[in-house]
Every structure is written in C-alpha cells, then in structure tokens.
Design goal:
Helices cover 52% and strands 19% of the residues. It has 278 residues and is of the alpha+beta class. The chain has 3 domains: 105 residues, Orthogonal Bundle (Helix Hairpins); 48 residues, SH3 type barrels, CATH 2.30.30.60; 81 residues, Alpha-Beta Plaits (2-Layer Sandwich), CATH 3.30.70.100. The longest helix is centred in the N-terminal third of the chain and has 53 residues. The protein is elongated, with a radius of gyration of 34 Å.
Length: 278
C-alpha cells in the first residue's frame, strides 16, 4: 500500500518536473504577459477617463467606457498568456457559452440590474450630482454603477437602490437642488403686499437661494384666522434643511421688524343655555 502511494507520488512529481522543464520559459512568459496586460489595462482606463473629462463627457459614461476597455485589455492579455503555455481557449469559450444559459437563469435579478444600469448610463435620465426622487426615496446621486445607484442625503446616509427599481418607474429629477414649499400666516389687518415684498427681500439676501427659477411668493390661502403667504424657492439638496431653517428664521424676524402680525390660531366658542330662566 505504501509502495503504491510512493509510486503515485513519484509519478506526480515527475509529471510536475517534466512540465516545468518543458514549459518553464513559457510559464514565465505567460505570467509576464498577464502582468503587463494588467498595467496596460490600468493605464488605458486612466487615459480614457482623462480624455472623457477633457471632452466634457459625462462622468458616469466616461467611467463606464474606461472600465469596459480595461476589462477587454485584461481578457486579451489572459488569452495571449494561456496560448503561451499551450492552453487553447476555444474549449473554454464553448464551456462558458454552455454554462451561461444556466447561470443566466440563476442570476436573473442581477442581470436585470445590470441591464437597467446599462440603460441608465446610455440614456442618462440623471447623472452624478443630480437630485432624484424614485420609489418614495430621494437624495443626491453620488455613484452610478451597473448594478445599483447610490444616493446620499443631508444627514450623510447612503441609500443604495438596485437599478431595476429605477428603470420603468416615475422619476423626479430636480438636478442639484430641492424645492422648499412652505407658508406663513399674517393677520387680516396686515398689508399682504408689504409682507410679500419683505419675504422676497429676505430671499434675495440669502446667497444659497437659487434665483433661476425665481422664488415664488404670493397669497396661498385665506384661512380662518390668517392670510397664508406661500413661499417656494430652490436650495442645494445637500444643505436643504439647514438652508430652510435659516430662511424661516430670517423671514420671521423681518416680518416682526416690519410690524406685520403673525396671529395665533383663533377659535370662536359660543355657549348655549337651553334651560329657561326661572
């Protein structure tokens, strides 16, 4: 039994030695070719990104082109390296083709994400830096890959959305800004035109408020105890709440300084006595 194991070990050892003697130079050459291919692929990707940036190509599309070229160069280097050691890639390609059908059925969700990501990169309904709202989730787009899209909000929370849940859905894109839609009530005894002008002046003085499109200020509603002045303006998404709070405080102080009354909610209560006087 031991003699058989030693004989098998000796056969394996001789086979390895024979392979190294016969293909040692080819093996070293294949490794060198593959390493050079990796370096070339990395260099090609960097050059492609720079060229795309120079010609004002979208960042997402530029990264996609660079990654595609990098993968192509690596595959070509691997094919050349395998051929150097006498390994034919034709049977491997046939085997990959045979396995691809079963693998495709097993990873339908993943492939659908990739297909949707490819559609996003080509059609570009949004790009990095835009603010989107989809499936009840909103945020600033920070990354677009084939499988998923990453959003972030003002709190620094990263939101990852599979691309298949974006394509085919209703998508709101407000680019880099978000709309602030608020209102403030003033007394019926106050002059609404004066209040509107005071609020507009406040918005002009806030350097983070976008003026294209222009902010909208006007009478929104006639409530029970106040005239509601509607205020609509755009601010950067990444500082949305901070900008909104600063603007609200400035509007409140400006209205107070202009002697414009902001009334408390009022209710009129009547007491009825059904008992007859004795």
């Amino acid at each position: 039994m031991i003699e058989q194991e030693l004989e098998q070990f000796e056969n394996i050892y001789n086979l390895i030695v024979e392979f190294l003697v016969t293909y040692s130079f080819q093996l070293v050459g294949a490794i060198v070719i593959f390493l050079i291919g990796l370096l070339v692929a990395k260099k090609v990707a960097k050059v492609t990104v720079k060229l795309c940036a120079k010609h004002n190509v979208d960042v997402t599309l530029g990264n996609f082109i660079a990654n595609t070229l990098r993968i192509i160069v690596i595959i070509m280097a691997a094919i050349i390296a395998l051929g150097k050691v006498g390994i034919s890639v034709t049977p491997m390609v046939a085997a990959i083709g045979a396995l691809s059908l079963g693998a495709g059925l097993a990873v339908q969700g993943l492939l659908s994400n990739y297909g949707a990501g490819f559609t996003i990169i080509l059609t570009r309904p949004f790009v990095i830096g835009n603010t989107i709202n989809v499936q009840g989730v909103s945020g600033l787009v920070t990354d677009i890959s084939l499988g998923y899209t990453t959003l972030t909000n003002e709190d620094g929370v990263e939101i990852t959305i599979p691309n298949k849940h974006i394509i085919g859905e209703i998508l709101h894109n407000s680019f880099a800004n978000t709309l602030v839609d608020s209102s403030i009530g003033i007394s019926y005894d106050s002059n609404p035109e004066h209040a509107i002008e005071v609020i507009r002046q406040c918005l002009r003085e806030m350097n983070f408020v976008c003026h294209e499109p222009e902010p909208q200020v006007g009478i929104n509603n006639f409530a029970d105890s106040a005239i509601e002045i509607g205020v609509r303006y755009w601010v950067p998404t990444d500082t949305y709440f901070n900008n909104k709070y600063q603007t609200n405080l400035k509007i409140f102080n400006a209205l107070k300084q202009a002697n414009i009354t902001i009334p408390f909610p009022q209710r009129e209560v009547r007491l009825l006595n059904d008992n007859a006087d004795v």
